[in-house]
From TrEMBL, chains A, B, C, D, E, F:
UniProt xrefs under SUPFAM superfamilies: Ribokinase-like
Keyword Hydrolase: no
PANTHER family: HEXOKINASE FAMILY MEMBER, PSEUDOURIDINE KINASE-RELATED
A GO MF label: kinase activity
Protein family (similarity comment): Belongs to the carbohydrate kinase PfkB family.
Pfam families attached to this UniProt entry: PfkB
Protein's UniProt name: 2-dehydro-3-deoxygluconokinase
Stored InterPro entries: PfkB_Carbo_kinase, PfkB_dom, Ribokinase-like
Record key words, sorted: ATP-binding, Kinase, Nucleotide-binding, Transferase
Entry annotated with the keyword NADP: no
Residues covered by the Carbohydrate kinase PfkB domain: 1-311
Source organism of the structure: Flavobacterium aquicola
Domain of life according to the entry: Bacteria
């Protein structure tokens, strides 16, 4: 089975119970997650041979993160230990008109202080078919961005498919460089990108265009501009999200494979149990879809959208929907019947 | 006050907190319930003299189930002890597009290994007015089905009203007989049946007809066919359920008394706190309605539909809505105002 | 900064977890709140110098309430200790068609047995700009009503703005007097009143008129009648609430300043996490709005409506929405996006 | 089977989790108990036909208490509804050198406002063999003391054995009478008393003597003085407790039957999970012992001491140790082996 | 690194919170464990390459058990899926004089219905150095005993060290055979046995001798008798346990290697957080000790005793003490200082 | 009332429930504490006017810490906002032979990056009588040590009593300087020091002497050597702690006032609920004792020892024992009786 290697950060996530605000909490639910790890878990759940590569502190909290990987059947043998601390983020879960609230405490983490040369990428990737990374790793520090570039170059050399979730977060990118100074060099090796058009344009130094995702005429033009800049690009996908409220989202998706546009039917997602990680669930579903249905972009997209929707019903960072559940929903079943 | 005796299984129900998936749970909420027990609790809540008859293991877990009965004011004096274990079912509560998930672990339970002759039905039923059972008991084992038939015969002989919730579950019926080999003999004594038309047809060996419950012309014909097969039948009712999602149901009901069709107004039920046991809440409401409003089938049906709706807002297997709450909702009040 | 003094009761609130019914609870969430205290917390959250005056029992439970005040940055230095007990109320949180249920256990509380002369109002109010009280205090006992009247007289003499939330609760007013025998004398000193028209009419001994809050023509007439009776009145506001279900409310508001009618846009509030205290959140928002935007009644009203809506998403009695969150929503943002 | 009727108060007990202090709690564990109810539960657990008589408020909290009785198999058919509120007590559980802390909030309870004539004692006691009450009921109000006297007179007339746990609490007895003005009249009908000698002397108006419970010579004299004052007295027992710390108690007991002194072996009780109600467990064990071993005072005492010890290991007000567990410990087994 | 394969059952363990009794629990803590699995976890924690072989039901509860194995870094690749259910046991945790209480619900489990031929032992054991099993597997069913014998024969043929924890439980062995009819044939291949002398004698059909473990003269004779019966035997060890109470144990150990007797110093273990699995912790420590210190039986024994002691301080079935913690305690450090 | 100002760090403390290990936790109890803050809380509890000065991040987690200060009635008006993050420490609570385990994550905190000049000490200390700091602040960073020195100089100039808890932690002091390069300059202004003799010697660059605290002859000599080095010193105290196990400590104390040695009676502390912060409780008790009993060093010491002992029974970082509880224990009462 083809192995997918994901590279990035896993954090401790601390969250008040239910919809309590930070100031009301006397305990924080403790889970572990992070964009690229979440993708690996999704793939492992679908039966893919998934590996996660990161740098962990050599303390009890790092060990907790490691056990979470093992529990979820994600290969961890190439993880490197070092650095001071596991990154943390605090999450307050909103409801209705009150949005969720994230407080990052991930600076100085073991992953943020990783450096080029820490990972033996030739060895790690030698039996892999796919390499996944995200814009977050490039955003947390100069050295992490360099480690990313190093990995992508090896992956490209070894002929792996390379995917990237652009994942732009304005609160990150604090180390003195703009995305457009860093990302183009790494993105040029990528074959699959998840992100909306304006984020991609911004990261590549192009002016924003405020695209209309319903307009199937202009979309190919806008996406094609990315193909012109990134010569290895084969697929671009965008998650479409309309937020009625923190508890009610409408989710769709769009995919362009260089030739045609594919639309995923928009689904009502209500109530939202936990929307954090739903983009990662889309990414995980997209990788699975492209691997499993290489000649059926519509099906691959439908699978990604269904995975994204189901993630909203599941607490924690990563998607625990099973392959069968995602397939059923990709087939159109969203009635939520009791299985007994 | 007329006594209603319900016969069936009470199980330990184990459920992850909130909407957690099984694999996320470090504890399971522990409650006790089961179709026929849930009916008895509903009736006790409405002020009916309700008794539950079952077989429990003589261990601490069986004692927990017994205490639950006592707590809910359900008479337990004729319960028999024996057998190996209390049946268990695991329930993962869904949300939105993700349905709830039940894992049964009820084989080899004390109730599944009950045998004809275990209960002294003449004594148990001598001062009762109504006997209730369900298709589940007939489904779990040959000997339980035989115990059911034995009970029904005595109840019939003593002139009790006999009701049955057909409750077809394809995962049960594993002991080598089809429903149509077992159910007709027991159903022939029944006066009141809850179930949809095709389930009844299937259990009686008739071909399915995929009825249109909006078509009030064909419905009497379809229901009447049941009266032709079951000579003691006086009332058939059907719960109408449309599942928008696991968190949003539309609930109605229909009743045929041999002469006329009655429709209960369809209600929006959202959010769904716990839909397990909502059919039992309908059954409990129906028995109460038929006892309390013997000449007002519409009111009886409205009461049953209201009980069913309210159950969806209550955690656990059985309905804890009070008589007054059900009556208010049967009267049309569903605004959910604060009572203070 | 102008100080606002609020006078009333703080209670221990005991509530089953989630949507459990009272009989299912093995523990009660313990929080502290009460209409007038909730107003003080709202104001402190918005940066106002807020003080709460009450009477607490001199025991560990009273100390818990005191710590809650301190935690929320509400000045407590003029609180008086004495009496037997902290008032309690039990709250069962409804869902969907099942409404929330309050059981009061506040009789004989330290606040209910407060007497005229207990508080040195001249001293308490000497550096304050605003005094707030509510109809609940007048309702719990004769002596508490007298203490209220005493405070209002001093506040009026010292030139403070005086506001009252009418807060009629039929279960209170058990001490032998009708509201119209007690309220007019206290209300005559008030400058700002929150309440619906018929409640105000009832408390002032006028016949109810069942007003149509959409009819902007008749409304000025109906409100003006209050100005004719209460000579110090400057502003009357009403919370508009339509209850789709316990989990879904539609919230608007209306304000009359003696000259013009202002309408706040109606908002969908779903799901409802906790609607208790949402009226107090409106009141707190209204005081803040009138203080902060003295010449912009529309903005003051919008702020109050937004505060009320956001409170529904927050557990506990008082509103923990921040100034920025309320302002954003008053500006029209209700998409509930993740802040990260 | 002989029926034992216990008369007194059942309260809601609110307790922070584990060893948290009141001010640290965001929830209170909610259980139900009270001295005389606890005795009834003990007896029901041992297979005795036990009934509890009290007065409950007709609200949801009263219903919770009623369900607790039913759950524990205590007969509740003669309970009377009325009054304002269920009594409450707050319990902070100590550890080591920090003692537990009780805050009473039981004034104005439905039981405190019971009056003579409320219970039809002739009917309640007509088929009973034993009546139990305690000094707490006489302490909470004049009218409750009168109701007690009324009950005791009927019990005496009908020939029941009457037992009393003296249970002196200085914080109660607030209604203007001293124990020695009230208790002698009620105690004169009693056959069995549990209490230490000085408490009994105090309640009977005698000077305290500070007895030495190791001195088996003077003890008969001191106990006999009680028999001289209370002509119906047959048995006096005293719980011996030495408190090493809140977590470590040494428990013994002593019994005088008018002729001889019996000593129960002192047991080490550590850790203490919950010592509240351990005196009630002694009382329940004593009644059972005297009923079951009428000619073996030593065995009756051993049973009571064992019950008291085991209660310390069980959370909540009442003793959940089984008959077999108490008997094993009375037989000398205290190794706490795993049963598997 | 030499691989150790352990074969047996993993169960779902359901336990009331803290020291609650079964009847007080509204939820059960859910963990996974079982004697032979616990041994594998201990070894994995010490850095040994540990594999667990069992049979799991192919349902969500079986998946939970599988994830637990993965989380603890126990190899699970040879696990077989099939059968009806995961075995369950209920555990009520005692305190002081009240012992813990186990209710087994493990009949009909997937492991109990395993059969000879289900596992391809040649393949599983081909790269292993050690095989571990226990008397529990031989006790649960005839077919499981046969599977055990099959495994042991292959292990013997391949030259693995074979260890057995005798683990006699009288409640098991219900399938019609006595231990002495089954165990001798399997034990004859064993090299290492953990158990007390009389259990070994009983399982081998010898009369009990009630040995004095302090008497170092007679002990070699008694142990040697086992070597005479079991020709492959090299090491016998016994856990010494004196139960002061459920919360206070004294733990030692003894080891005989065919030549000399070794005694482990007795340790005070108080408080006991969870004593279930402490014997398995001893077994895991013993295997590690024998592997790591092949020429130092005293050290091996000390390690086993220390592991057993530390397990008592850890909740759940298996030992989470780290290698360093066990070594420190084996070195004599038991002061429990804070590490900071 | 004289004001005491304490300066240092407040951290978020994250702790698994009960005695769970880090890897077993799915949530962390969240409390706030830190050595110098804990001292301030103790003093506020005893009725002292206590202020805490620190630097907090301007985010929601910093606000939580601020609310904790307010709740505990500690003045916070001079707190400064800035920096990246609130320091965190993870605490795993041991039991018996397993010690508690702390994982620090406090590097880069807002307090660690405080600089000289951040606080306007002249203003903060102008109306204070006492200034308290600890060796931890000097240990976390060069700039924090400089801020400490700055504060101490101002305090000395203004004539405040200055106290220091030496609090040596080898894991800190990572910024390139040894304690003896930093501490002497700050300590020279101190009047009261808490610490053992060898820690003081080490921080002052003297060789360790391994003192015998039972030897009252040599002790004055050893303590006097400190007075020779620190010319402002008036009182040195040492907490004596003997760790039987993590759950059982023996606590005493010793005080030297330049003239005489005072010994506090050693107390048994078992069970230990939470020993973190018990040294701070001693420090808080010592300051209170020296303020309240300026001429009674024995009483001051007894108060400190009693406070330390009681802290062990209280969860969280700081001491919640009341003044009355500490005084009772200082008077010799440690029986842990129920207060009711």
């Amino acid at each position: 089975m083809s192995k997918v290697v994901s590279f990035g950060e896993i954090m401790l996530r601390l969250s008040p119970e239910g919809n309590l605000r930070f100031g009301q909490a006397t305990s924080f639910g403790a889970t572990y997650g992070g964009g690229e790890f979440n993708v690996a878990v999704s793939l492992a759940n679908y039966g893919i041979n998934a590996e996660f590569v990161t740098r962990l502190p050599d303390n009890d909290i790092g060990t907790c993160a490691l056990r979470e990987m093992r529990k979820m059947n994600v290969e961890s043998k190439n993880i490197v230990f070092g650095g001071e601390r596991l990154g943390i983020y605090f999450l307050e879960t909103g409801a209705g008109t009150r949005g969720s609230n994230v407080v990052y405490d991930r600076a100085h983490s073991s992953m943020a202080t990783i450096e080029k040369g820490t990972i033996d990428w030739e060895n790690v990737l030698k039996d892999a078919a796919w390499f996944h990374w995200s814009g977050i790793t490039a955003a947390i520090s100069q050295s992490a961005a360099e480690a990313c570039l190093e990995a992508v170059k090896v992956a490209h050399k070894l002929g792996l498919t390379i995917s990237c979730d652009l994942n732009y977060r304005s609160k990150l990118w604090q180390y003195g460089k703009a995305p457009c100074e860093v990302m183009p060099e790494i993105l040029q090796y990528c074959n699959v990108i998840l992100g909306d058009i304006d984020t991609a344009y911004f990261m590549l130094g192009k002016a924003k265009v405020n695209p209309n995702y319903q307009d199937e005429k202009t979309l190919p033009v806008l996406y094609t501009a990315l193909f012109d800049l990134l010569l290895n690009l084969k697929t671009v996908a965008t998650t479409l999200r309309y937020s009625v409220s923190a508890s009610h989202q409408r989710i769709g998706g769009i995919l362009f494979d260089g030739k045609a546009i594919y639309q995923g039917a928009v689904k009502e997602v209500t109530p939202v149990i936990d929307r954090v990680g739903s983009g990662d669930a889309f990414m995980g579903g997209l990788i699975y879809g492209l691997l499993e249905y290489p000649n059926n972009s519509q099906r691959a997209l439908n699978f990604a959208v269904a995975a994204c929707c189901l993630k909203h019903t599941i607490a924690g960072d990563y998607n625990l929907a099973t392959l069968k559940e995602v397939e059923n929903m990709a087939d159109g079943d969203s009635a939520g019947l009791v299985s007994r």
